[in-house]
Amino acid sequence: MREDVVVGSGEGAARDSALWGARFSGGPADALAALSKSTDFDWRLAPYDIAGSKAHAKVLHRAGLLTDEDLAAMLAGLDALLDDVLAGRFLPALDDEDVHTALEHGLLDRLGAELGGRLRAGRSRNDQVATLFKSYLREHGRIIGRLVLEQVNALADQAAQHLGVAMPGRTHLQHAQPVLLSHHLLAHAWPLIRDLDRLADWDARVAADSPYGSGALAGSSLGLDPVFVAHELGFTNSSANSIDGTSSRDFVAEFAFVTAQIGIDLSRQAEEVIIWATKEFGFVELDDAFSTGSSIMPQKKNPDIAELARGKAGRMIGNLSGLLATLKAQPLAYNRDLQEDKEPVFDSIDTLEVLLPAFTGMIRTLRFNTARLEELAPQGFSLATDIAEWLVRQQVPFRVAHELAGACVQACEKRGIELWDLSDDDLAAISPHLTPEVRTVLTVNGSLASRNTRGGTAQPQVEAQLTELRTRAAEQSTRLA
Predict the structure, then answer these.
(1) How far apart are CA 284 and CA 105, in angstroms?
(2) Residue 17's pLDDT is what?
C-alpha cells in the first residue's frame, strides 16, 4: 500500500509529482498546483484509465517496444494496481495532479522506473483522458438506460392495470376531451423511449471514435495501431483525425443534453403527480414509502420525490448550459479548459442514478382514484368537439359545425347544465342539423370509441399502443443487457 505523501519507486528512485516537469527547473507554485489538481473528481475514471493502459501495453508489445516478458509483467502490475484501486487500498496522494499522474506513480511503485516508465511512450494525457472519459460515459449511459427502462415499464404496467378508465384530457390545463388514463400514462412513456433511442444513437457515434493513439494532437511516430487499441477497449474504430480526437467534447455535450432531456421528461410527469395529489384534483394517492410528512402539520403527505425531480431537472439543464459555455470558443487542439468538462456531466449522472429509482418507485406505487377520474372526464363541455365532428360526418362544413358546437356550449353555460342535458327541442332550436342522433357522441364511451385510428385514445388503439411500447422496451432491454 502506497504512502499518502511520498513513495519511492521499487528501485528507490525519487518520485516526480508531475508528468510534465522535465523542462522545468522547479516545481509549480502552490497556487498553481491547487488550481490544477483534479483528483477530487477525476479519480472515478481510474478503472477506465487502467483499462486503457493495458490496451496500450499490448500495442507497444505489437510494435516491438515491449518484450513478451515485459508485457506479462506490465499487465500483472496493472491488474494488481486495479485491484488496489477497487478495494480502496490505493488512492491518489496529496501532490498527485490528476488520475493519470497518480496511476503512473502507482505503477512505478509496483514495477520500478525502468519497466513502469516504458508505458508512457506513444501516448499523452490528451488522448488518454478523451478515451477513458468516453468509456466511462458509455458504461454509465447503459446504467442510466436500464434505469429509464424501469420507469418506462412502470408506466406501462400502470397503463395495463387501468385499461378502460377514462379521465379528463387537458390542453392549457383546461378540460379538452376525454381520454383513457392508459393513453395519458403512455404519453409519458414514449418520450423516455426516445431518450433511450438517443442514448443508443450517441453510443454508436462514440463507439466509432476512440481517440487513443492520437497522442497530444498529431498522432504517434512509434508504429502503434490505434484501431487495435480501440477494439481492445470496446470501440468499433479509432479517431480519423488526431486533433479532433484529442480536443472535441461534443460527445460530452450531447450526453449532457440527453441527461437533461431525461430530467425534463421526468419533471413533466412530476408536475402532474404534484397537481394530481392535491385535494382539489384528487386523482392519485402517494404510497407512504414514496412520500414524506411535515414536521409541524401531521396531516401532510408531500410529493417530495416529484418536487425533487422537478428541481433536479433545472440542475441538469444548468450543467448542460455551463458545459456549452465552456466549449464555445476554444481553439484547436487541447486546452486546459477541458478539465471543466467532467464535473457537470458527472453531476448529471449521479443525479439521475439516484433520482430514477426513487421516481420509478413513486410511479409504480401510485394509487389512482378511478371514480374521480371518470366523474370528471365529461365535464367542462369536453364533448363539444364530438358534436362538431358528428356534424362533419353529416356533411356539415367544419366551420359551421364548430360554430354550432360553440352555440351548444353557450346555451348550457347560460342555464348551468351540461351538453347531454340539452333536450331535443333545445338542439333543434340551435340548428336543424342537430338531430337526436347527436346523442350517440354525447357520452364518454362514445367519444373514446370514435377515436379509433393509430395514435387515438380508443381502447383498441391504446391496447395496440401498449403492445408496441412493450416491444420497443424489450428491444432496448436486449441492447442494454
Answers:
(1) 57
(2) 57
Pairing of strands 166-171, 174-180: antiparallel
Residues in the chain, pLDDT under 50: 1-15
Radius of gyration of the chain (CA): 31
Cα angle 220, 221, 225 (rounded to 5 degrees) comes to 60
Surface-to-core class of residue 130, CB atoms within 10 Å of its CB (0-12 exposed, 13-18 middle, 19+ buried) = buried
Q: How far apart are CA 53 and CA 108, in angstroms?
A: 13
- Tell me if residue 154 falls in helix, strand or coil: helix
Q: What is the pTM of this model?
A: 0.92
What single DSSP character describes residue 210?
Answer: B
Q: Which helix (H) or strand (E) holds 97?
A: none
Cell, residue 155: 408506466
Q: What is the largest CA-CA distance in the chain?
A: 105
Helical (H) or strand (E) element with 368: strand 367-368
CB 306 within 8 A of CB 270: yes
Cell numbers linked to 328: 464555445
Q: What is the pLDDT of residue 5?
A: 35
Mean residue pLDDT across the chain: 93
Length of the chain counted residue by residue = 481
Which one of the listed residues 36, 294, 321, 423 is annotated catalytic?
Answer: 294
User: Mind giving me the DSSP string for 300-344?
Assistant: --B-HHHHHHHHHHHHHHHHHHHHHHHHTTPPSS--GGGGGGHHH
CA distance 373 to 363: 17
Cell triple for 159: 397503463
Cα 70 to chain centroid distance, Å, stands at: 42
Task: List the catalytic residue out of 100, 124, 172, 248.
Answer: 172
Each residue's pLDDT tens digit, 289-319 = 999 887 888 788 899 999 999 999 999 999 9
Residues 6+ apart with CB under 8 A from 35: none
- In angstroms, rounded to a whole number, what is the distance separating the alpha carbons of residues 447 and 453? 13
C-alpha span between 156 and 364 (Å, rounded): 10
Of the CA atoms within 13 Å of residue 176, those in its CB half-sphere come to 8
Residues ≥6 apart with Cβ < 8 Å to 342: 38, 41, 42, 133
∠ CA 442-447-448, rounded to 5°: 150
384 within 8 A of 408, measured Cβ to Cβ: yes
Q: Is 294 a catalytic residue?
A: yes
Q: Give the pLDDT of residue 10.
A: 32
Catalytic residue flag (residue 172): yes
User: Under 8 Å CB-to-CB from 380, ≥6 apart: which residues?
Assistant: 168, 174, 175
